[in-house]
Write a structure and sequence with these properties.
By secondary structure, the chain is of the alpha+beta class. The chain is built from nine helices and five strands. A hairpin with a 2-residue loop joins strand 1 and strand 2 (125-126). Residues 3-92 form the Small ribosomal subunit protein uS4 N-terminal domain.
Length: 202
């Protein structure tokens, strides 16, 4: 699941949302928004089926495996507040998610690959762990190598979105500053997380 390489538009159509953000997947999803299959038709889905679908949204959107999601769920349960919100906020605070939300990449798989290949430093230190949790005050830099800097300058120039409110992006220096932690209003994935919490609490 964490390295899904199959047809992304099919996942978008099956889960009914823009889970994968690549241009090809979005074009194909817009062209055929109905669920995949030769003769797609509305089917009654059980509560369990709906919960599984919501869980799959989280796993595909953030690129998580079952074990990673379970680990985050257990961590969220030990935190104060709403477990579902805490789970999604922990997902948003992953380093690869921060790179994506800053506008340095167009998709989360791109961000995950960049982090894994060592394209970024956190507070001046090398970090190649996509799941690393950022904290308020952290500074993420693109590594100062000519080919890497050129790659990300090109991506930033093509970016037509908006940097997340809880991040500050310095386009000139290719630097991202986490000026605060995200809140429930900053969560980017529309998902019924309470159904996921109920499912995973069994």
């Amino acid at each position: 699941m964490s390295r899904y390489t199959g047809p992304k538009a099919r996942i978008n159509r099956r889960l009914g949302g823009q889970i994968f953000e690549s241009a090809g997947a979005l074009r194909a999803t817009n062209r055929k928004p109905e669920p995949p299959g030769m003769h797609p038709r509305p089917r009654k889905v059980s509560t369990y089926g709906e919960s599984m679908r919501e869980k799959q949204k989280i796993k595909y959107y953030y690129g998580l495996g079952e074990r990673q999601l379970r680990k985050l769920f257990d961590q969220a349960g030990r935190m104060s507040g709403n477990t579902g919100e805490n789970l999604l906020l922990l997902c948003e605070r992953r380093l690869d998610s921060v790179v994506r939300l800053s506008g340095l990449t167009h998709t989360r798989p791109q961000a995950r690959q960049g982090v894994s290949h060592g394209h970024f430093t956190v507070n001046g230190r090398f970090c190649d762990i996509p799941s690393a949790q950022v904290r308020a005050g952290d500074v993420i830099h693109v590594k100062r190598r000519q080919n890497i800097v050129g790659l990300y300058r090109g991506r930033v120039a093509e970016f037509n979105g908006q940097t997340a409110d809880w991040l500050a992006f310095d386009e000139e220096n290719l630097k991202v500053i986490v000026h605060r932690l995200p809140t429930a209003e900053d969560i980017t994935l529309p998902v019924s997380v309470e159904m996921v919490v109920e499912l995973m609490s069994r």
